[in-house]
Write a structure and sequence with these properties.
By secondary structure, this protein is mostly beta strands. It contains 1 helix and 18 strands.
C-alpha cells in the first residue's frame, strides 16, 4: 500500500511540474520584430534642392495566444494586439549627415514624415504601432522619411556620393538594426549669378582718328567645384547692323572652378576710321 501511495505522489509531482513548465512558457509573449528600409537613388546639381522619400517597414510575428508583454511592447486585445515601436537613424539631433565620394563630401538631412521641421536621428525618433488582427500571427507597418539636399552645395564636385545609414528599431526593451544606402549623383553645372550686359561703345565719330573705342561688360559665373570652364562667342568679330560699324570681342579667360563666384569681363573694340552709315 505504501508503495502505491508513493507512486501516486510521484505522479502528482510530475503533473504539477509539467503544469508549471507550461505556465512559464506562456508567461511571456514570443513576439519578434524586424525592420527593412529603402531610399531611391537621387540626382542633384547645386542650382536646385532635392527631396527624396524613403520608407521603413516594421514586421512583427507572434503566437496567436501570446499574452501582453511590456518587454516587447506588446498589448493583447481579444484575439488581436499591438506592438508599439520607435525607429531612428544615424545622424545628429537635426538629422544632418554626410555622404562621401572619395575624399569629397555632400551634406544632406534626414527628416521624419512631418515636413522639413524635425530631423530624423537616434534621438528624434518616429513612434508607430504594428496591429495584429484577430488570430493574425504576422503584421506590418510602413512609415516614410525624407532625404533633403538643399540648393547651393557648390563645394561638392561631380560624382557618386554614398552613405550606409543605420536604422534603429526599439520595441519595448528590445532593440535591432537595419541599414539602407543613400546614393546621390552630383552633376556639374555652371550659372551666371550676374549675366553679361550690353556693350556700349558710346558715340562714334567716323571722321575722328586715334585709338579704337572700347566697351566692357562685367559678369560673374559660378560652377560646381572642379569644373573646367571656358568661354566663346558665336562670332568674335561682327558688324553692327544699320550703321555698318565693325567690332571685335576678346574672349575672357577660362579656368578651373573654385568654391566661389568667378568674375570676368567681355571687352569689345571698335576701330576708328570707319565710314559706317548714319543711323536714322
Amino acid at each position: 500500500m505504501s508503495h502505491f501511495y508513493r507512486n501516486i505522489r510521484r505522479l502528482v509531482f510530475v503533473c504539477c511540474w509539467f503544469a508549471l513548465l507550461t505556465t512559464a512558457q506562456h508567461a511571456l509573449a514570443v513576439v519578434s520584430c524586424s525592420a527593412t528600409a529603402t531610399l531611391p537613388a537621387s540626382a542633384y546639381d547645386a542650382t536646385t534642392a532635392i527631396t527624396t522619400t524613403g520608407s521603413v517597414t516594421v514586421t512583427c510575428t507572434r503566437a496567436a495566444n501570446d499574452p501582453s508583454d511590456p518587454a516587447v511592447g506588446y498589448v493583447r486585445s481579444g484575439g488581436g494586439g499591438t506592438v508599439s515601436y520607435t525607429i531612428g537613424a544615424d545622424g545628429v539631433n537635426t538629422g544632418n549627415t554626410i555622404a562621401v565620394s572619395g575624399a569629397n563630401q555632400l551634406n544632406y538631412s534626414l527628416f521624419r514624415p512631418t515636413g522639413f521641421t524635425t530631423g530624423w536621428s537616434q534621438t528624434n525618433v518616429t513612434s508607430r504601432t504594428v496591429t495584429f488582427g484577430n488570430g493574425q500571427t504576422s503584421a506590418s507597418s510602413t512609415t516614410s522619411f525624407t532625404m533633403n539636399v538643399p540648393a547651393g552645395r557648390w563645394n561638392s564636385p561631380a560624382g557618386l556620393y554614398t552613405e550606409l545609414v543605420t536604422v534603429f528599431l526599439t520595441y519595448g526593451t528590445t532593440n535591432s538594426t537595419t541599414t539602407f544606402t543613400n546614393s546621390v549623383t552630383v552633376s556639374s553645372i555652371c550659372t551666371f549669378p550676374t549675366p553679361p550686359g550690353d556693350l556700349d561703345f558710346g558715340t562714334y565719330n567716323s571722321l575722328a582718328t586715334g585709338p579704337a573705342l572700347a566697351a566692357t561688360s562685367a559678369f560673374q559665373i559660378r560652377c560646381t567645384r572642379g569644373v573646367v570652364y571656358s568661354f566663346g562667342f558665336d562670332a568674335a568679330t561682327s558688324t553692327i547692323p544699320g550703321v555698318n560699324l565693325n567690332y571685335s570681342l576678346t574672349v575672357p579667360a577660362g579656368g578651373t572652378s573654385p568654391n566661389s563666384v568667378v568674375s570676368r569681363n567681355i571687352v569689345g573694340s571698335m576701330p576708328s576710321g570707319q565710314s559706317g552709315a548714319c543711323s536714322s
